[in-house]
Predict the structure of Light-independent protochlorophyllide reductase subunit N.
Amino acid sequence: MTDRFAPPPSRGCSDTPVLKQRGQHEVFCGLTGIIWLHRKMQDAFFLVVGSRTCAHLLQSAAGVMIFAEPRFATAILEETDLAGLADAQDELDRVVGQLLERRSDIRQLFLVGSCPSEVIKLDLSRAAARMTEKFAPRVRVLNYSGSGIETTFTQGEDACLASMVPVLPQSAARELLLVGALPDVVEQQAVGLLEAMGVGPIRVLPAASVNDSYGIGENTVFALTQPFLTDTHAALERRGARHIAAPFPFGEEGTTAWLRAVASEFGVSQELFDTVTEAPRARARKAVAQASQSLNGKSVFFFPDSQLEIPLARFLTRECGMTAIEVGVPFLHRAVMAPDLDLLAQGPVIAEGQDVDKQLDRCRAARPDLSICGLGLANPLEAEGLTTKWSIELVFTPVHFYEQAGDLAGLFSRPLRRRNLLKLEAAE
Ligand code: SF4
């Protein structure tokens, strides 16, 4: 099978000077990740150590799921003075003791830090170590920060997964680790394609249950499915595992390149690779062609939010015919992003971090056909006649690999079609 993608650009964005912004930023905090992480890890419980604001955020973000048997909660610490810290530790021990007594299904407990000053002063890693000792072997207690001061909304998943890496046992087995919390159906598609090529054994981080635990070591190779997992990447490398660098599996091209990188690592022949991927590639091509008709020739501007911006800009420019004006990312990790940056043709401003007012000015001046941004910026931009897409939807919707490629293009084309319909109605 021959590749039908545009050739790599003669100059990609890898050497493009980066516009570094260090001002006010508008993003959700890392607590948001609990909403998708608790669905993946069936025996985990997330206890946010936070304030009423954190509890409200979780409840409104979780929406209807609050009616299900909850596997997350907020231990609310009121603002007290420093002398109250010992009490706070006692209070946390009491809450955790009650929780674990009531819920025998919990095998992994995550203490999740947040912003309030009292919480920042609490040493949650010591609390987690103390509780692990007390509740082992039934429950493993870990901690990470979801604080909005330290994390954007996707970094919560990264911090969570990174916290799990040091407690994985040592192993000399040669295994592939897929890293990232994908919806089950998408994960099964990826594993199915790789197994059809004879790649394996395949492990997944996060695993559905603590019982699915596996070891890690110098013979482990890992592939990231999400571009925001940079701390997890570092934690895995510290354990001796080796990263398989690849563009991220968005769209037909990204998926093929990602699969090819993994297949090459495991010595899969070109013939077998083509046999396994030919049919899903054809379906993905057709679906993207249909869904991207209204994207062709349009311009796009990314505000930094999800950390998915660079791979998505690559997908939209190379597979959907769009032009990228600015691609903003919360932070730029070269080792993880290089394969996507190489494929993204020079032209857009690559910006790291945010100074929201300056960026809004650049967006207003450019008048892009589509702006990808957080919820807080979407309404003001829409009111100014700009069409927007909420970046948070890209994390809540299945968008990876071949079978979702058309849906991914559709997520971007829908707001443009809606805007056109509104224009037509207004003209009638
Ligand atoms: S962690 Fe911080 S930003 Fe997130 S809800 Fe709590 S107080 Fe707000």
